[in-house]
Design brief:
Udp N-acetylglucosamine O-acyltransferase, Domain 2, 254 residues, 9-stranded parallel β-sheet, 10-stranded mixed β-sheet, UDP N-Acetylglucosamine Acyltransferase, domain 1
């Protein structure tokens, strides 16, 4: 299961059923879970922990030091969950001591070719990153987020669950849950209706979310006023809107 040309550091922990392709390099302090497939010419540096049943394709760089001038060789980490697909030429960097010292990728994510996830990012579950989507440092991506090709997200932004970012979008503020975003100077363009329907949101829930979207984006209200109006709707889905907006540090896209 491990090609004879692969280079494996003695301190790396390789679980049973792991496949490692030709000329891949597994560095010190790397842990790879059961039945994970590593293609040819992949470089994985530690400290990095990779879970079970992942697929990492050729020429990806996993767990390399962060691209941050403040980094001075501190011990920082990359953690990857289970059942992720990481395609060609992806770059996933470790964290920095200035944050929580760890970059995290959850479960069941698809990272297409040339995706970059910078230091200290926190990515949830069931996300899709299309080709060349990039996160700058300290970005939070919640569950079921989709990023289109060549989209880029500035430092410290947060992408709410079930949001959809179209191709070539530039994100400089937080994106509330369920919202669709488009444009180089990204703006909201309604709800992620197709994605929500595919994930089984009921008609009643969709109706409440449409009301919430209008309150936030079409009634000319301040953020504080919008939150007061949202609280009157009272649904679980709208509550996620309220919590997200109320906790935003950089402000939401308006």
């Amino acid at each position: 299961m491990i090609d004879k040309t692969a280079i494996i550091d003695p301190s790396a922990h390789i679980a049973k059923g792991v496949h490692i392709g030709p000329y891949s390099v597994i560095g010190p302090s790397v842990e790879i879970g059961e039945d994970t497939w590593i293609g040819p010419h992949v470089v994985i540096q530690g400290p990095t922990r990779i879970g079970r049943h992942n697929k990492i394709f050729q020429f990806s760089s996993i767990g390399e030091v962060p691209q941050d001038l403040k980094f001075q060789g501190e011990t920082t980490f990359l953690e990857i969950g289970d059942r992720n697909v990481i395609r060609e030429f992806c770059t996933l960097n470790r964290g920095t001591a200035q944050d929580k010292s760890v970059t995290r990728i959850g479960n069941d994510n698809l990272l297409m070719a040339y995706v970059h996830i910078a230091h200290d990012c926190q990515v949830g579950n069931h996300t899709i990153f299309a080709n060349n989507a990039s996160l700058a440092g300290h970005v939070i991506v919640e569950d079921y987020v989709t990023l289109g090709g060549f989209s880029c997200v500035f430092q410290f932004c947060k992408l709410g669950m079930h949001s959809f970012i179209t191709a070539h979008s530039r994100i400089v503020k937080d994106i509330p849950p369920y919202v669709k975003i488009a444009g180089y100077c990204a703006k909201p363009f309604g709800l992620n209706t197709v994605g929500l329907q595919r994930r089984g949101f009921t008609n009643a829930a969709m109706t409440q979310l449409k009301r919430a979207y209008k309150i936030i984006y079409r009634n000319g209200l301040t953020t504080a006023q919008a939150i007061q109006e949202l609280e009157k709707l009272g649904s679980e889905e709208v509550q996620a809107f309220i919590q997200f907006i109320g906790s935003s540090h950089v402000g939401i896209i308006r």
